[in-house]
Amino acid sequence: MRGFRAKDADRDRFVELIEAAYVDGQLNSADRELRVGRALSAETLDELETLTRDLQQPPGAVVRPTVDVPSPAPSFATTVLPRIAGSFVVLGIVAVALVIGAVVVTMFASMGGQSSDSGFGTDGVFESELADPEIMFEDPPAPSFEMTAPQVRAFLRAYEKQFGTLEVYEAGFYPERVGVQVPVRGSRPRMERWSWTGEWRQDTEASAVTGPGEVIDLGKVDVRRMFANIDTARATLDVERGRLTHVLVNSWIGDVPSVNIYIGNKFNEGGYLKTRLSGDVIRAYPYEP
């Protein structure tokens, strides 16, 4: 694999292998942070192999990526001939359609003197369809959000487009929505609460700032590292059958801006992992009975 360029999918697979080795006890936290950082910036598959060559693959770990083998060049028989045959088929269909169209026009011309009791309007559309346009058109699907890396990135683009900034007092990422405290410009600290579910909804008017009092820049959140840390939190916080409940991005007065990943289960047991915006782990708070 020497010399082959690494893709984002390759980097993600090797990051997962490093995280699995960390959970398996093969790496300490400092070594894990170093290797993950180098894996995310690796340019070739050879660099990725070097980072993980000394690691044992824990049960369920991702296997080494393979290099795609180019497909043989298409032949005349598999490309040109089908196109020629397809052209004749299309011409035949067009000819048949023209004949049918001519017959239909002739029939409507002969019915021109009949009354409109047949159910057709003046433009040939059923009157029932004119009275009920829902028969002809369906509502478009409602916008939606789910907690995935591509949709978090889409939310960040939508936030900057809506508010002209990426600054917030707090952002809460939930499985099916995002809630944000949006700063309001003025002489005193004010905020509005908004929700994103694929479209924007304003939840409150401007009010005094409550909770975290420091403005943070969502543009500094490393989304890739955040989702890698979600996997780490599930595996290390000792929450039985734990699932992601939410992620809070905020900064309390006197504290560093942080990404707080909360894991819980149906027994109301939970823990959370606190990291910097860059993804570096600050501290883990596992479940304690």
From TrEMBL:
<dbReference type="Pfam" id="PF08044">
    <property type="entry name" value="DUF1707"/>
</dbReference>
<dbReference type="InterPro" id="IPR012551">
    <property type="entry name" value="DUF1707_SHOCT-like"/>
</dbReference>
<feature type="transmembrane region" description="Helical">
    <location>
        <begin position="84"/>
        <end position="109"/>
    </location>
</feature>
<feature type="domain" description="DUF1707">
    <location>
        <begin position="5"/>
        <end position="56"/>
    </location>
</feature>
<keyword id="KW-0812">Transmembrane</keyword>
<keyword id="KW-1133">Transmembrane helix</keyword>
<protein>
    <submittedName>
        <fullName>DUF1707 domain-containing protein</fullName>
    </submittedName>
</protein>
<keyword id="KW-0472">Membrane</keyword>
